[in-house]
Amino acid sequence: MKTIIVTGGSGGAGHFVILELMAHGYSCINLDRVPPKEDLCPFIEVDLTDYAAVHAACAEADGLVHFAGNPHPDENHREAADRFSNNTDAVFNAFNAARAHGIRRVVWASSETIFGFPFENCRPHEVPLTEEAPRQPQNGYALSKAISEDLAEEMATLYGMTIIGLRLSNVLYDDVEAEPSFQKIPGYWQDLTSRKFNLWGYIDARDCARAVRLALEADLAGAETFSIAAGNTLMSQPSRALIDAVFPGVPVREGLASHGAMLSCDKAKRLLGWQPQVTWQDVIGPNGEGRS
């Protein structure tokens, strides 16, 4: 049985990562600043910006999943300073502690925000976007993810590690109490611009967790990034209608499905064997009025 450190395991996505890993025979240790709501595995209270504490907590692990950090994109320059400092310190400490302990496989939460979120001052170069699309970070949060991807490249080369970044779309939960919940989706349909900030994308927390496990197990080397998103948008309108109305003139690549997502996950399908399995229709029904 392999032991996996999960930083941020008390958070929403981290909780599902632990559930997924334990269901497949892994032993997990949760590193977080706050205790989990449910005791699934050993918990160590750690501030991820404290390198000595992170290093001590990572001993004896076989792999590391880094989901800790402030998950909220910033809206002003003061928040930007906090996001950038907190998130880049945390990711360096996680990578460096893994390196120091001989942990060769790291999976971490990068972000779709790298592509241009909130798409107010920029436009997508084309849709669906692939991992090769030019990065357009627009705020401190997205910049922290872009710098962290660069850091992963350098540390993977320098230390012979495999560091896999998952560019997660907006993680949603089947929970009416959650801020990012599936149950809010019907409220977006009357305003096509209401979710333009991330090109109307989402990912179910369980699909996110499966991507993490498959990234831990995939036959890969070096640093890689993968977009992880549901196969459709969360809007009721067709995808081409959304682009034509909100981003007229943006090139649409051949093969975009009727309600297809604006992020291509072909690379994850090819190299990780990952497929999104949950759509919003599975959770709240095709008309948004309850489960199908």
What brief labels describe this structure?
7-stranded parallel β-sheet; single chain; two-stranded parallel ribbon; 292 residues; Rossmann fold; globular; alpha/beta; 33% helix
Structure report:
The chain has 292 residues and is of the alpha/beta class. The chain has one domain: NAD(P)-binding Rossmann-like Domain (Rossmann fold, 3-Layer(aba) Sandwich). The protein is 33% helix and 14% strand. It is built from eight helices and nine strands. A seven-stranded parallel sheet has the order 3-2-1-4-5-6-9, sandwiched between helices. Helix 1 packs across helix 5, helix 2 packs across helix 3 and helix 3 runs parallel beside helix 4. It is globular and about 50 Å long.
Query: Would you identify the CATH architecture?
Result: 3-Layer(aba) Sandwich
Element-by-element helix/strand order = EHEEHEHEHEEEHEHHH
Tertiary shape: globular
CATH topology: Rossmann fold
CATH superfamily: NAD(P)-binding Rossmann-like Domain
Q: Percent of residues in helical segments?
A: 25-40%
Head-to-tail CA distance between termini: 38 Å
Q: Major β-sheet, in short?
A: 7 strands, parallel
Weakly predicted, low-confidence segments: none
The overall average pLDDT, rounded, is 96
Q: Number of folding domains?
A: 1
State the total count of DSSP E strands: 9
